[in-house]
Amino acid sequence: MPGAFVRYNLQPQHARKRLKIVLIKPSKYDEEGYVIRHLLGVLPSNTLACLYRLTEDLRSNQYFGKDVEIETALFDDSIQKIPVQRIIRSNRPPMRRTLVALVGVQSNQFPRAADLARRFRRGGLQVFMGGFHVSGTLSLFSEIRPEIQELIDLGVSVVKGEVEETWGGVLQDALNNRLKPIYDFLENRPDLTDKPVPMIHRKYFKRFITSNEGTIDCSRASAVRRNSG
Ligand code: B12
CA 164, CA 195: separation in Å to the nearest integer? Predict the structure, then answer.
């Protein structure tokens, strides 16, 4: 028909979606504003190990189905430079989405984490932040603190609480590009009895003084309140 447009679907019929999850433990700034970075690390981060294993478990159990490929990368800003631009370039929606998770962010790391979050948001990525500073301030104060609100306004999602029971659902939201501004899991305390043991990728260990030492968090336990009635 003259003048009519034909729209071809150039996507292969069974193209696989990919969700790349980049877990980053931010470092902190020194008094002059430089990022503190060491040649080698001493202890791998518990939080990175925990979230890495949870993600790997979802991947190996095909939580998102056969048509979704999950890729996990982890970085520790205190011992390696974060390849921000390379990570941004890996995001090619709608088929290849990259989610940046800034993990285990303590108050002393928050300014650095916030700067990384801003850079990734400028690059169009979905960004998520959790850890003691976010969880703690959201729990302790009746109103959202301005530094957290600023991130939310930029489109950064923040999480309050632990995610052993809920990480899969959160990643599903990321896959659908529908992350919520705030996830509140404080009342959804995980039962750790059947959860996978934290694990670190071999490549990450190479950056530590000893490549066969990790830490175990002995104080975490099942915090589920069982319904006796
Ligand atoms: C163990 C520990 C350490 C160990 C860490 C060992 C290791 N290999 O990781 C050591 C001794 C090294 C340490 C050092 C420090 N620590 Co410390 N540490 C702890 C402790 C007891 C447990 C943390 C932990 O490993 N939890 C286990 C992990 C799996 O849980 P998590 O981090 O909470 O993560 C879960 C959730 O928060 C959530 N989550 C976390 N991040 C993200 C991100 C996303 C995107 C999502 C979705 C979810 C999510 O999911 C996880 C799984 O459910 C906490 C107190 C506590 N009970 O939390 C203090 C604590 C975190 N430490 C604290 C402090 C101050 C420090 C130091 C600064 C002390 C110092 N002056 O040097 C240093 C900083 C080191 C650094 N920057 O890396 C404070 C932080 C306070 C604050 N306002 O931020 C805490 C809260 C203790 C306190 N009450 O004062 N620490």
Answer: 7
Instruction: Indicate yes or no: pTM above 0.85.
Output: yes
Residues with CB under 6 A from ligand 1: 43-47, 50, 101, 103-104, 106-109, 128-133, 135-136, 159, 162-164, 170, 215, 217, 220
Determine the atom of ligand 1 nearest the C-alpha atom of 49.
29
The pLDDT tens digits for 68-92 are 999 999 999 999 999 999 999 999 9
Q: 217: closest CA among 101, 49, 26? A: 49
Contact yes or no for 201/75 (Cβ under 8 A): no
pLDDT of 12 strictly over 90: no
CA distances from 159 to 10, 88, 133, 165, 183 (A): 37, 22, 10, 13, 5
